[in-house]
Each structure stands twice: as structure tokens, then as C-alpha cells.
Specification:
535 residues, FAD/NAD(P)-binding domain, Cholesterol Oxidase, domain 2, GMC_OxRdtase_N, EC 1.1.99.1, Choline dehydrogenase, choline dehydrogenase activity
Length: 535
Amino acid sequence: MTDTFDFVVVGAGSGGCAVAGRLSEDPATSVAVLDAGGKNDNWVVTTPGAIILMLSSKLNNWAFDTVPQKGLNGRIGYQPRGKGLGGSSAINAMVYIRGHRADYDHWASLGNTGWSYADVLPYFKRSENNTELDGEYHGKGGPLNVTGLQSDNPVKETFLQGAREAQFRIRDDFNGAEQEGLGIYQVTQRNGERWSAARGYIHPHMGRRPNLRIETQAQATRIIFEGKRAVGVEYMQGKEKKVLRARREVILSAGAFQSPQLLMLSGVGDAAALGKHGIASVHDLPGVGQNLQDHPDFVFGFSSDAPYFSGLSWSGIGRIIKGIGQYRRERRGPMTSNVAECGGFLKTRPELDVPDIQLHFCMAMVEDHGRKPRWGTGFSCHVCLLRPASRGSVWLNSADPLAAPAIDPNFFGEDSDVETMVAGFKMTKRLLDTPALRTLQQKDMFTSDVRTDDDIRSILRARSDTVYHPVGTCRMGTGDPLAVVDPKLRVHGLEALRVVDASIMPTLIGGNTNAPTIMIGEKAADMIRAEMRAG
């Protein structure tokens, strides 16, 4: 007998956890959640310092590759994506950023009623339990714990001193009235431990809510349709093919790569393209997989003998061993670090309305996402482009549901993106060249020979890659031929099928995407409940 629930949620990432957790608060509403990974409730996930074990490997990570990137000299990029409960919130750098108010007002101006900043702020606040900040911009008592770092790393103060010397403003709260400036990031942690979306919305209720069923190691392979109505999901668990049926809706929360992939595998997408893989069209929706946007990112790296950085050296290993002991005793110290402890938002031109670059200052020297370890300790500083003009896409490599999708972020596909990054490179260098930050540097590992704008363009194309914020592949819109969902997140032209994750973003927000994706899940649950009440 096939199991039937009111809602079947595909994917337990940031959006899926939030929508499933909220919908299952009503004991009369049954919710099943499918995720291809595990429970993600062990020390590797909960210890912030273990991020490098996951980010650089296939541990709780899909570890996708891109197609060769023309704008990056034909290089293949890396796209880590969380696998298991919590999705990417279980492997990310835990930075709590919402984006700029203008991002959401822009969504609303495109015809997405209900998505202005004033509309979404209550959902950010509802999700949040901020231990340090309150007032009109922050929430208390929500499932997502947000707090300051407990790494006790004095380099944070050095960074702030460098920001002052470079004459950048200092910002205490990037999610308040203004975003521009540099400072220390708040993180999704509690008592020095990672607080993923699963930890906030799912783990506390597993086994306690009879109306909530969580299936792990369960990879969705197809949405089942009767006519134009989604009625269930087929999935593989081990070697067994199984089905869950949905009375009310199937909710797709598989992320910016796998939500469009599952739609296409199920016959929803560009009919001609699907036909080439032998997939019969259920609904011709050419926007599925289009409009991929991501933040291209460049990393400065410096070796340093200052005793504050992690890395492969005898002193670095000793610091980690000592830090593990401190973490076990106090839940403080280097093992609580999210690595990207400082950063902020800057304008490359003073006349801009909103910041167009973001910095992440890291307490380790990171090369190729940590996949190329170097002997020695040091630090790095990322600079990313917040609103790229380039647009990419996701498509099927094959009709095999267990195969990875083809991913093309099209980094630096537009020359304007390169030029803004040249300006961002120079601003970041201005910060790194301050006396405060110079004192930490032994050797400039990557940019010592960069002098001219052409040198900068060259190294940007040679070394840039993602900073892990893909969105937009099932974009929200009305009267738009490439829109996939409406402002209620319902898939155009189909019934009982909704998308609730970062893929619905029509444009990329100016910041890290985890908190906004949780907001999308919160808002979706509210919209669904309103429809249920209306009958």
C-alpha cells in the first residue's frame, strides 16, 4: 500500500525544513519529507570547525562540478551543495545575512506581489532567535538561532582596525537599517555549535510529531502526475523504488540545481529539450533551469606566522588539538569558528544605491575551496560580486535521475561583471594593504605580481569561482514567459505543485542566501495555510 500524506516535501534543505516544520505544527496536517542524504546530527555537522571536512569532500555534500566556464578560461568550477537534513545549512559558513531591502522591493516591482521588504521582514523575524540583537529588525524565540562568534580570535579586532585605516565605515548589524560597511558577522550557531535549518525546524520534532515523517537516504526520481495535477513522488531508497502520494500538494525544495532537474525528469520544462532524452512532456515550461545566477568570487591568500590561524603546520595542528580540548570543555575557541568571521558590504562607486561587492575575511588560507591544502598557516579574504549581469542555466545530462545535472553559472559571461570585480579587487587590496593587516602577512600567495588592470582581469579569470549562492532556476514571476512559479510559488500551468527554495528568486540577493531561503520556507508555509483556511 502506498503511503499518503497531505504534503510531500522533496528536499530537507533550508526551504524544505522551514516549510515542513511549520506545516507540521498543525497535528491535523500530515507532512512527509524526502532527502537523499542522512540525518546530519553528528559532530561533523554540529562542530563549526569541521566545515573543511565537508566543503572539500563528498561528506554530506553533492560536490557538483560545472561545465567548462568560458569566462574562467574554460575551467570547470566546483559547486558544493548540502546533502542530508539541513541541506547546505549543514555544510555552509553559517553567516547570517538577509540581503538588502532593495533586493526584495525589486522582486515586488517585477510583479511579485507580497515579496517587498516590508512583506518579508516579518518572516525573517519569525524564523530568528537572535541572542544579541533585537528591535524592529530582529526576532526572538524563532527556530533559527543567531548569535555572535565564540572563537575569541583577536584578528577580528585587527580586521576592524584595518577597516578604519582604509576609511571604511564599521557596521555592527548588517541586517538592520543599513547594510554598507565592514564588521564581524553573526552566525547561525548556539552555544558554539552549528545551528542548521534541520536543527531548528526538523530534529526537535522527529519521533515527537506523529504527523511528520522524515525519510533519509531517499532520492526523489520523479514527480507523479495525473493529468496536470501532482499527486505524489517516486523515490529510490537503497535499491528499492518507492512512492509517497500527496493529497494536497507536492512541495519541491531540492535547491537551485535539483529542483529544476527533478521538474525536467518529470516532464516539466522545455518540451523539445526533454524529448531529446526521451522524456514525455507533461507541461511545456521553457523557463525551468534558466536564469541561474551566482556570486562569482575571488580569494586573496597570505601566509602568516601569527598564532591565530588554522592550517597545515606543526603550530597550526597544535592549535587545532588544543582547540578541540577547549571546544569539549567550553564550546569556545577556534573549533567554533565559521572560518569567514569578518567581512561586509562595499560600493565600488559612491553613487551606487546599494553595495555591489561583499567580503569574507577567513581565518585560514583557502585555495580551491580547501581542496588544495598547503603546508603552513595563513588567512584569506574573499571578494564577490553581489548582482552579476551574467545568467546561466541548468539542464539534464541524461534521463538518469541519479546522474548529476549539467550546471553552467556562466561566470563572467558579461564583461561588466569583470569590470566591477576589478574595482572590487582594488577596494579589497586597499583594505589588505593597511598597516593593521600588513602586520599579519608573511607572503602574498597569489597576487604579488598583479599591478595593472589587465593583470587583475587575468587573475580574476584564472582564479575566480563560486561563493556558494546559486539561485533563480525556477524563477518567480507573472506574465513572464520564463517564469516557473507565481508569487504564491505555485508552478505555472500545473496543480498541487509548489517550489520552495532559492530557485524561485527572480534575481540574486546581495548577500548570503541561507537566511533568505529559510524566509521563503516560512512565507510559503503561511501562504499554504491561508489557502487551506480559505478552503
